[in-house]
Amino acid sequence: MERVKTTVSVIKADIGSVAGHVVVHPDTIAAATRVLAEAKAKGVIADFYVTNAGDDLELIMTHRKGADSPEVHEVAWTAFQEAAKVSRELGLYAAGQDLLSEAFSGNVRGLGPSVAEMEFVERPSEPIAVFMADKTEPGAFNLPMFRVFADPFNTAGLVIDPKLHTGFKFEVYDVFEGRSVVLNAPDEMYDILALIGTPARFIVRRVYRRIDGEIAAAVSVERLSLIAGRYVGKDDPVAVVRVQAGFPAMGEVLEAFAFPHLVAGWMRGSHHGPLMPVPQRYAKCTRFDGPPRLVGLGFQVKNSRLIGPVDLFDDPAFDETRRTAQLVADYMRRHGPFMPHRLGPEEMEYTTLPEVLEKLKERFTKVEGAPRAAEPRIKTELLSRESKEGD
Ligand code: 13P
Ligand code: 13P
Ligand code: MG
Ligand code: MG
């Protein structure tokens, strides 16, 4: 007999917030909670936890319907619609921000919400970590995911634990081309890094344990601006990671966030800033709409029920990380509108900056005798967005 599988689905959307892009309103959480409670009573989902990371409404659900279940996605979509309704009534800021479509057609992917889902046969004890970030993009998880699953200086278990010692498979997703490649660590780790060092484009989507193919992590890859074709907000991502007993320990997973690395997002989704891991109560992006925040909640999953949560970064051991993040925030802010604090031109294409530049176009005049820049010498398909025709 096939063993029962549990699915963890973390689905989020920004449906509007209080006082700008700061925090969700409790009434919107209540509205979403009502929808999920009803779905639980009907047996569509087994359990749930509704929360927020800053202005993002987060639905953490467990069920037995697998990833991409139309029924479960419809529950999430309805919860977001109901919450957005409340948001509009209260005149919240950017009400319905991430809901890019009116119509639901079986799956929330492509409609604006972000999704991280994984299905597994529960271990006798199944601890997981759910990560939710505000004011950044999915590629923000690339560096920590690499460190957790491929860097022995972060994860001692890669050396010590036989189940981890054979390494992990990384599914790397290309958001521009909509395709992915599976690469093995440690043998192909330089190839993995060659891709995921470009986090705006290549995103670690899933990680599997090589010894038996068990899923270890899932990260949302939705990028709103690419779906909408314009800036509507950053693509504040979510991730689920299984921990302990054959996977990296909870502390090894959290250790990867002890370095507040620079990520894209922050003010108007247009700036680089340090990713600051915080207790849930501090997931409130105020200074220059940031710096970008990360919330981590720990749960045990038992018979598809969620036991917890534990607020994982509510620990003074992360105080120095936060202090470093403050110093880096100060340093980056002093660059004002200059790169590399402001994002590069490729990323700025999806903001309102092109409208400003458009009006200057006519005022440029040719400089006599100026050398023409040569065509770029190296133009590989993987690095150039214009390289493919007909898509
Ligand atoms: P305990 O001895 O506290 O259970 O910790 C085991 C462990 O492996 C921690 O990483
Ligand atoms: P959110 O993506 O969190 O809505 O932030 C948008 C923004 O422009 C912040 O300055
Ligand atoms: Mg917002
Ligand atoms: Mg947000």
Essential attributes:
single chain, 391 residues, alpha+beta, nine-stranded mixed beta sheet, four-stranded antiparallel beta sheet, 15 strands, globular, binds 1,3-dihydroxyacetonephosphate, binds magnesium ion
Task: Please provide a brief summary of the model.
With 391 residues, the protein is of the alpha+beta class. It is 25% helix and 25% strand. It is built from eleven helices and 15 strands.
Describe the protein:
The chain is of the alpha+beta class. The chain is 25% helix and 25% strand. It contains eleven helices and 15 strands. The strands form three sheets. Strands 5, 6, 7, 8, 9, 10, 13, 14 and 15 form a nine-stranded mixed β-sheet that branches. The protein has a four-stranded antiparallel β-sheet with strand order 2-3-1-4, with helices on one face. Helix 1 (26-41) runs antiparallel to helix 2. The longest helix is centred in the first third of the chain and has 20 residues, at 70-89. It is globular. The relative contact order is 0.14. One 1,3-dihydroxyacetonephosphate is lined by residues 249, 251. One 1,3-dihydroxyacetonephosphate binds at residues 249, 251.
